[in-house]
Each structure stands twice: as structure tokens, then as C-alpha cells.
Amino acid sequence: MTDATVLATRTRGPVRIVGAGLLGSSIGHALTASGVDVALADTSPAQLRLAVDYGAGRPAREGDTPVLVVVAVPPDVVADVVERELAAFPDAVVTDVASVKLEPLKALRARGADLTRYIGSHPMAGRERGGAIAARADIFVGRPWVVCRDEETSAADLTMVEALALDLGATPIEMTPEEHDRAVALVSHVPQIVSSLLAGRLADAPDRSLQLTGQGLRDTTRIAASAPELWVQILGANAEPVRDVLSALADDLATVAEALRAPDAPGARRAVADTIRRGNDGVERLPGKHGQNRRFEQVVVMVDDTPGQLGRLFGELGELDVNVEDLRLEHSPGAQFGLAEISVVPSAVRRAVDGLESRGWKIASTTP
């Protein structure tokens, strides 16, 4: 650790983290690496020891006086733990990182808790695997971190929570709890259900069908590996906004299914085309690299499945002055090569294709 690292860190310790799972331990790793004193607490002694062994912080001690408490526990106990931490540490700002914000706030208000030092927040980051062993200091880098302030929030306390997000490489975004929960229903919670439903259709599918699996199916089912226990809590706590999105989605599915009952009937093909076109419009609105709504084109390169080939590809693209905006890899079953789908700005496509082909690379395709 260098003096420059310490000076660059806005967060000052001690920071107490309650919950040594994926998010809590990941926050601990990032702060500890920056020289911040991190005290970890968890109801599971085994989880706590594992997080400490991996370097996420030290065990919390009697007499600790944290200036910031981060509650990283499952949604159904957030209100209980926040209330307890506010009472135990009257000089600390308390935040939580749960993926649902309105229900815990309602519960705290109903109990008459003093919320002047409480600020709900939520980093839009995670992994399919949970627990301290899956924690990583960099999972927040470049990700939005929602901060839910209200009229009681002081500027100094708000700055402390936003500083935490900035120190972890995230981008703070202010929202109300209601706005947050409606937003995550659309961009996080419903995608989980859709992914799980689609993946569930694979459970009894013939093996020969699954041998045809391509990157599209892997992309759309990636998050289906998430933990059911956690998602039961998340969806239950955000049931109404999720139900609203699912109802609208069910109507859209019904429209397409009805069109396909008689695909040659008047208007049927238009209904299908409009569905696909609206999807195009939605994808266009997704923030891209650095938050820009930019369209890239893809150059698909065949890469031998041998050590060093992907590094060589990147190196030669650099020599061609072609910036890789995104990358996706696909391996065909039994093949001795992979397909590297490189996203580049449209003006760089011809330079990339001509330059790579002159260096012996085989271009499988280019797609807008």
C-alpha cells in the first residue's frame, strides 16, 4: 500500500460490514486493499472466518466505533439489522445494499426508527455464485450504485455513502425508493424470471437438441444459475412492480403466440415483425460502453483453441489501431477452435477485417 493509495480513498474507517457474503465481502476486499480498516460481522461463524481468511477485513470487536456501517444481508432481515445497527452505533451512518429499497424503509418507519442516519443504497453488481469465496474487489467497477436519500438526509451523510460507491469504482445515482424498485423490476428482477423460465424448458429437453446450443441460448440463460433462496426473498419484497412488468410481458407473449397459430392470417406476420422491431428499439436504448448509446458492428474471428491465440488477436488488433469495444467467445462442441465476436465502431470494420486477414486470421462473418 502506498501513500498515494490512501490519499485517493475518500472513505475513512473504521467501516463495519454486517454480512460477509458476496457483496459484503467484495466491499471489504476493495476497502481493505485501499488501506481502510474493515470490521466484518456475520451470523455464520464459518462464513465470517472464510471472509477474513480471504482478506475481506478483520472480525468485528467490542469497542469498535465505525463511522460507516454497511448492511449486506438478505432482504427479509434488512430492516431488523439496520434498526439494530442504528441503535448500537449512534455516531455512524448506516447504509444497506439490498436489491429492494421500499419494503425495508416502510418496515423501519412503521417501527418508529430514527432514520436520520440511514441511507438505503444498492450497487447494481453481482455474480451467479454467492458467498465469501466468490467475492471480488472489482465487481463494482463501472456499475451504477443507487443511493436513496430523503428530506432528512444530511449532505455530509450523503457524501459518505456516495464516497463509498466512488471508492469502489461505481457510479452513484440518486433515486427514490419507489423509482429504484420499479426500475430494478424491469432491468433485473424480471430478466431473472425470464431466464429461469427459459432454462427450465431445457431440463427435460432431448440431449440431441441441447447439442445444438449456441451463444444466444447461453446469453439468455446465464443468470438462471442464481440461488433460488435469495430470489424468493427479492421477488417477494418487490412483488407489485415485478407483477406489473410480467403482466405486460405475458400480454406480449400472448400476441405472438396468437399470431403463430395462423402465421398466414392477415396481420400475423406484421405482429411478429413489430415484436422483433420493438426489441430492436429497446436494445438501441441500452447504455453501451462508458454509458453511451452507441451502435457497434461485430467482426467474428476464428481462433484456434491453443494457448496464447486470444492474446495474439488482441495484440494485432492494437497494432491495427482497432479498439475492442466488447468481446464474446463461443465454442462449438467438439471443435478445435472458438469464435471471437469482436465489437468495434463501424468505421473500424474494414480496417480490422483487411488487417486481420493479411495476418492469417480467418474471418467467419461481419454483422451490424
Automatic annotation (TrEMBL):
Known EC number: 1.3.1.12
Domain Prephenate/arogenate dehydrogenase: 13-290
Enzymatic class: oxidoreductase
Keyword Disulfide bond: no
Keywords, alphabetical: Amino-acid biosynthesis, Aromatic amino acid biosynthesis, Oxidoreductase
Listed GO MF terms: prephenate dehydrogenase (NAD+) activity
PROSITE patterns: PDH_ADH
Keyword flag Oxidoreductase: yes
Pathway assigned to this chain's UniProt record: Amino-acid biosynthesis
Highest taxon listed in the record's lineage: Bacteria
A UniProt-annotated Pfam family: PDH_N
InterPro entries cross-referenced by the UniProt entry: 6-PGluconate_DH-like_C_sf, ACT-like_dom_sf, NAD(P)-bd_dom_sf, PDH_C, PDH_N, Preph/Arog_dehydrog, Prephen_DH
Family: Belongs to the prephenate/arogenate dehydrogenase family.
NCBIfam families: PRK06545.2-3, PRK06545.2-4
Name the record gives this protein: Prephenate dehydrogenase
Organism: Microbacterium aurantiacum
